[in-house]
Design goal:
Elements (H helix, E strand, L loop, with lengths): L29 H25 L1 H22 L35 H25 L2 H23 L14 H10 L7
Helix pairs in contact: 1-2, 1-3, 1-4, 2-3, 3-4
Length: 193
């Protein structure tokens, strides 16, 4: 079933007969969110177990870093550039941050180099932090499992999400160039090279 109303940035009157409708993900679907949580959760669970085994303080610090990054910093540097952020709702409706409040204005231009550095640094800190403590504790099986699930998450993220994501500004975006051109043609309000 086709969705009748295109996203805010789209110049088309309807999604019916859109050439790229199935090639790029313009509209939120609950199954995307559930699948994202299913592929992201194992790394967070194993990382949390490793940190909690080391100390409650290390676990709480990681939890606070994750919250600060994903609830504020990541949304500011990444999500505000996404067409989903331009929608009329006061809350995000996307496959990662569904339901979080929009605290800033939509910014239809590409991410700056500094924003990309902040984003990649945040991801690096979040996923490398548990490794340090697992190494200290010599929890080799847990560490191997954790690293496996982090890499599996990144591979599945690229394969299932980044190849169809409308946030063309993200450094992980992997939408095919032809689809990207068509999407930008349909969405002239997005200022993206």
């Amino acid at each position: 079933m086709m969705i009748e109303k295109p996203i805010n940035t789209c110049s088309k009157k309807s999604c019916n007969n859109c050439e790229i409708y199935f090639k790029i993900t313009c509209h939120f679907k609950i199954l995307q969110l559930l699948r994202f949580y299913a592929i992201a959760s194992p790394s967070f669970i194993l990382g949390g177990i490793g940190l909690y085994n080391y100390s409650l303080i290390s676990f709480v610090i990681w939890f606070l870093i994750i919250g600060l990054f994903f609830l504020f910093i990541g949304i500011r540097v990444l999500c505000t550039h996404c067409p989903h952020y331009s929608e009329s709702s006061y809350f995000l409706r996307c496959w990662v941050n569904y339901g979080l409040p929009k605290l800033w204005n939509y910014r239809p231009w590409p991410m700056s180099i500094l924003e990309k550095i902040i984003l990649i640094s945040g991801f690096s800190i979040i996923w490398s932090y548990p490794v340090i403590f697992m190494l200290f504790e010599k929890k080799w099986v847990l560490l191997i499992g954790y690293i496996f699930f982090v890499f599996l998450f990144l591979i599945l993220l690229r394969k299932l999400y980044c190849k169809k994501c409308i946030n063309l500004s993200c450094p992980m975006n992997d939408v095919d160039c032809i689809i990207k051109e068509e999407f930008l043609k349909n969405n002239p309000l997005i200022n993206n090279p």
